[in-house]
Write a structure and sequence with these properties.
249 residues; alpha/beta; Spore Coat Polysaccharide Biosynthesis Protein SpsA, Chain A; four-stranded mixed β-sheet; 7 helices; globular
Amino acid sequence: MKVILYIALWKRQKLSKLIVHHINQLYREGRKKGVQLDVHYIWTNEEDLDNYTEHLLPQWSENYSENLPLGRKFNSGLKYVVNRGYDYLMQLGSDDTLRHDFWDYALPYMEQKAEILGCKNLRIVDFGTKNEKLRSFNDVFGAGRLMRMDLVEKASNVYKCRSKVSDTSGLRKGAPCIVPKSKFRPKMHEKVGEGWELWENGRMSGLDFNSECNLMARTYIFKPIAIDQDQYLATDYKTGDNIHGFEKF
């Protein structure tokens, strides 16, 4: 099983050693279970890149992007990871860690070729005080989220178009639209560009749900799977750099 771990970096210098330790642990545990884990970083400044990669064991690649908007930042790395033979794209925040036995819970579903799998339960830790909270969510979130790569490749390989007709979804003639190449219709769409886009470029929040909706709209409808029904496999560390700090949870 080949997995590419996909991370967008931002001001996590104090956390870097801890995050790298857990990535290396995931790498080692994965090798024992037949998982080849590589890493791709999207970086905004050299300090972030140096702090995260200095002691990293897996093979890694990287690209630069401005930090905002976040949707464009996430999209900027897609062309470097698609069509490389990976089975899954794995998301992880620059302040997130996964428990060492994560693969024990994920692999059975990966072997069944589940479309999206991940966690709903989150351990939230104030990095300064070490206080923690436990939270459960309705939907699979970004830390440790695995998306099947063949669907990512199909959904994110897009044409940027203008509509030639109005349709029942409310799209008006002449309006801009994003169309996966598999659904491009010359009678309906005027192509004005192309690229790799799974997230809306201008989006600043709701990125997990946004990519999930786009994946389904451009492929088929499925139900994401939570692998952590009675467990807390993911931890989110909060520092002063977070948009949503520890006190907001």
